[in-house]
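Hey, sorry to bother you again with one of my protein questions. I've been puzzling over a protein and I'd love to understand its fold better. Take your time with it, there's no hurry, and the full record follows here:
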Amino acid sequence: MTKARRQNNKYCILLATDFVAPKFGGVETHSYKLAQCLIELGHKVIMVSSMQNYCREGVRVMANGLKIYHLPLLPIWRGDVGFFAPLNIISVLRQIFIREHVDICHGHLSTSITMAMVLVAAKSYGIKTVFTEHAHFNYKDLGMIHVNKICKWYLKDVDAAICVSHACKENFTLRAKINPHKCFTIPNAVDTIKFSPNPSLRYPLNTINIVCMSRMSANKGLDFLIDIIPEVLSVHPNAYFILGGDGEKKALLEELIRKKGLQNNVELLGGLPHDKVP
C-alpha cells in the first residue's frame, strides 16, 4: 500500500507539534492550513500532538478527514506542551507509524516536546523527517540554552529543515548546528484575496497608518516596536499605529502609551479573529 502511494507521488505525511487547532496562533494556523493543502493535493495527512488543556485526548477528526492523535502527555506549559516521556509514548508512536503507513514526518517549532519525540522515533524506524522553525530564539536565556542543546540532539539526523525567513534560518542553523545546505527558506505566505483591505474604511484620515498584527511576545520583536514608536512619531507626528494581538508584552505597550501620552497615535485592538484583520 505504501509503495503504491509512492509510485503515484502520494504520501502519508505526519505533522507533529504541540501547537494545533482548535487553539489560535501562528504555528496552529500554519500546520492546519498546510495539512488541508496537502490533503487537497491527494496526500494522506495525520497530526500528532499532546493532550490539549488537560482534557483533549485520543483521536479527533477535523475537516477533510484530517486525523489528529492527542497523545496522553500531561501539558506542562501554556496548556499544550507535553511532558517529556519517551518511554511511555514510544510504543504508541510505533503503532501510529505502522497503522497509518507513515512515509514522512514533519515537525513544527523547536519548543514542541512532542514533535522532538516523534522525530527521534521516526528516524529510529527509518522514516524521512522534515522540520520547520517558525521563530527566533536567543542564546543567553537559561531556558533557551536548554532548548538549544536539545535541538542539537533531536535534529542531528533530520533530512531537511525549513525556516520562515532568512534571518530565522541564520538564527536556527547557529542554534541547532544544522548544515545550512539542507536548510531552506520558505517565507510565510499571505492569501491576498482573503486579506484585501477596504480603503474606504481607513481611519483616521490624512495619517500614515502603520499596522502590526502579531502575538505580543519578545520573540516577535515587540521590544523593537516599543523602542521605535516614539522615534517614528518624533519624525512623523501624523503617524498612527494600529496594533493587534495579545501577549505578555501588551502591558509594556500600554505603559508606553500612558507614560508618553500617545493615546491619539497608538491604538491597541487586542486579539482578533482572522476575518477582522482586513
Residues 26-40 form the longest helix (15 residues).
